[in-house]
Amino acid sequence: MLGKLDWSAIPFDQPIPLIAGGVVLVGILAVLAWVVVKGHLPYLWHEWITSVDHKRIGVMYILLASVMLLRGGSDAIMMRIQQAVAYQSQGYLPPEHYNQIFSAHGTIMIFFVAMPFVIGLMNLIVPLQLGVRDVAFPTLNSVGFWLTATGALLVNLSLVIGEFARTGWLAFPPLSELSYSPGVGVDYYAWSLQISGVGTLVAGINLVTTVLKLRTKGMNYLRMPMFCWTTLASNLLIVAAFPILTATLAMLLLDRYLGFHFFTNEAGGNVMMFMNLIWAWGHPEVYILVLPAFGIFSEVVSTFSGKALFGYRSMVLATMAICVISFMVWLHHFFTMGAGPDVNAIFGIASMIIAIPTGVKIYNWLFTMYGGRIRFETPMLWSIGFMVTFIIGGLTGVLVAVPPADFILHNSMFLVAHFHNVIIGGVLFGAFAGFEYWFPKAFGFRLNDRWGKLAFWFTFLGFYVTFIPLYVAGMLGMTRRMQHYDVAAWRPWMLVAAVGMAVLTIGVICQIVQIVVSIRNREALRDRTGDPWDGRSLEWATSSPPPVFNFAFNPDVRGEDAYWDMKAHAKQQSLDHDTPEYQDIEMPRNSPTGFVCAFFATVMGFALIWHIWWMVILGGIGAFATFVVFAWRDHDEYVIPADEVAAIDRVNLEERRNLVSMAGTV
Amino acid sequence: MNLLDPQGPVAAANSTILVDSVFIMLAIVVPTIIAILAFAFWFRASNPKAKFQPDFVYSGRVEMVVWAIPALTVILLGGVAWIGSHQLDPAAPVPGTGSPVRIQAVSLDWKWLFIYPDQRIATVNTLTVPAGAELNFQLTSSSVMNTFFIPQLGSMIYTMNGMVTKLNLRADNEGKLQGLSAHFSGDGFPDMMFDVNVVSPLAFPEWVATTAKSDAVLNEDSYKKLMQQGIEKGRPTYRLDDPRLFDLIATQHIPPGPGPELASEAGRSHSGGHDAR
């Protein structure tokens, strides 16, 4: 009846996951109870869960990423403590637990923190920057989000029901094959990523279409803000790369479920094929993450320097160059597999070539600051912190792209330090910069900058104290994923890294305090004009938070930095006070399709993991039926009457005019 | 295990390339970091002396320089990579004194088996080699992937079941080194460290002779026992019964290692040994 599932799936003998799971469960139930008792359920359902508004979906993506960041961060803390204490001893985590933790940490941080964070920011901001009212496929957007949430839910479920993969975050066969990993861990891993991978793919299709097909009047390609360009590049990579991941994991699942032999030792399976396929997705993946971050830094550096982005066309070229070349370098992840010197050298050089456009980006940000009037608001601090940190990560990255150097650094703690250097220093700093920068746009009030700056300094410092020691440990021959070790030379560095982790944790606590403090002081931090930073692109041309229709009129774009242009014109010509003629606006209806579909996907995923076949069929039929019902819908839009549009818009227009006239008198 | 304290020519070349590459890059990275901090500081909004140039948004000369600097660096490093890859190809022999020593390494769950086919001996978790001699390794795995790595001798290489990889090294100085697996291979992975004894060319034959007197014999049967999952704390040595043992493993005439015992694991990891239906 329940397949492989029985009471032995609950780890009663392991207190750590049980207590952690229990606390989370109580937390979720408490929040649910509060929501129901306070009568917020209808609000949540109508305004958020079924919402197809790109801004709401963006916020939910970021919320998911933030929650999962705490989970992935807890894993990181546990690993750092384990490696600090497990010198000539077993530490406090047995191998079967420690191995789950580092696998879960990698999986969660990439798929359920970095991905939803950048996709959330793109969802929230790109339609606003393009001057349009929504994304190309609003309901599909909601489906994509909820499928991602399904994946995250399944990963967390593995904490208390069964186990997670003990194979590392890429589940290399043959270790991940049934014969060496007979448990459900790898199945949890694979099905979570299959389901959330579909979600990511539809998000990618949606955003590519949005950028290509939905731009406001006059917004041609070479007038798009840099964030839109990097969004386009990143989502093109998603569309091209995620099917590879899906196919690779499908092959692994066929091996595990139906006795196929794609990657097994026996019957002609080939593990090298898996290596190639997974990295053919995996390397573009890092650019999928970092390109949007580059876009965020471009916006932030330009805004807070009070200048347009230096060398805009050069930046566009660099972005698209990275997009293309990132598909030609995957082999550098396994120089040590014994390919010949020609192959290794060619892929090594190709990998270095990516450093050229990346370097160009750094220099263009540098010259954007040159001759600027730099305001050191929190997003700008993250950006400068990024530039310094990312260059160091780039240096070590090019170093491991030199095959003979990689022969002694591959899979070492040096490598671990390198990719954290670029992912924390690049993607996470970018996500935080974007979070601080666009928070007022999403919620209508700024974040407290004192706590924001504290969070930056603790994270920045904590990063170096944690990861410089890991570079050193790598130079001392330490490899990654060691549950315990006997080498005395490694010990001090592991202790320093644990201290660094504590500093990083303080940084995260500062972020949380910042959000709480800002919510409590939201009236004082209120952004009434919609343009708190003296911004340059169109997202600042509407109120904060924007109305559901974003813009009462489609903005007319006459050049780069569209909103800066409008402000400059408004100051020169005395303000025109003629009343514009408002029109009815059609917006897409809310739809529970995404939520219901993800519910059935969760049921199906869980059933597949535990071999509960009747439930698989039930979930499959349910998910399919949801699509059929959606496909048969009669009304998918509703009309906001012109009067209502006028009422909403006039309030914002008034505030904005006050601002401009005040600026004029100064 | 310090990578910057190489004990053989391969490791010395690896670490030279590593250090050289770092310095080549530091030559542009350090000035860039200084420029970032300096520009950010000087052009702060509160500095009245900094000239505000909002229209400085394009300069052909600057663009040329910023594309040229990274490009030139990469051309230089690309040369290093190309030449280095060819000179340090793991499959290329490393000339040494005396006759070359052939070693066949097999990664097991979770220990290293070293077979000396010409000496008809084998060891577990300890590798003894003569100083100065050409060492040529053939490597495979009994089950999952691992990476054979002696940090102070240089270049690592993967071991994979059903396949043979090649690696050539040389140890120049007598002494004790350590090796390990650099690719995660399961619960016993951290215990896959092994000792490397580099002995004098004269002591090596003596060690071979002593080891050849070992009571334990390595043949297909004892190998199958050895490849069961488990950690080996000791340093067993064997007489080698059949010098073709490595080929039997690499060609899968001896089937891959069995993985965890299903019955004993069933309670903990839900292997599906008993289906409730």
Biggest sheet architecture of chain B: 7 strands, mixed
Q: Tell me the series of helices and strands of chain B, N- to C-terminal.
A: HHEEEEEEEEEEHEHEHH
Low-confidence stretches of chain B: 263-277
Q: How is the largest sheet of chain B built, in terms of strand order?
A: 8-5-1-2-3-12-11
Oligomeric state as shown: heterodimer
Mean residue pLDDT of chain B: 89
Based on Cα principal axes, name the global outline of chain B: elongated
Amount of helix of chain A = 55-70%
Strand elements of chain B, count: 12
Topology of helices and strands:
The complex is a heterodimer of chains A (666) and B (277).
Chain A (H helix, E strand, L loop, with lengths): L14 H23 L3 H9 L4 H32 L9 H36 L7 H20 L27 H29 L12 H33 L12 H35 L6 H14 L15 H29 L8 H23 L2 H7 L3 H31 L5 H27 L15 H30 L41 H11 L12 E4 L4 H17 L3 H19 L5 E4 L1 H24 L1
Antiparallel strand pairs in A: 1-2
Chain B lengths: L8 H34 L17 H28 L13 E8 L2 E6 L4 E4 L1 E5 L4 E7 L4 E5 L3 E6 L5 E5 L5 E7 L12 E6 L3 H10 L4 E2 L1 H7 L10 E4 L4 H6 L11 H8 L8
Parallel strand pairs in B: 1-5, 4-10, 11-12
Antiparallel strand pairs in B: 1-2, 2-3, 3-12, 5-8, 6-7, 6-9, 9-10
Helix pairs in contact in B: 1-2
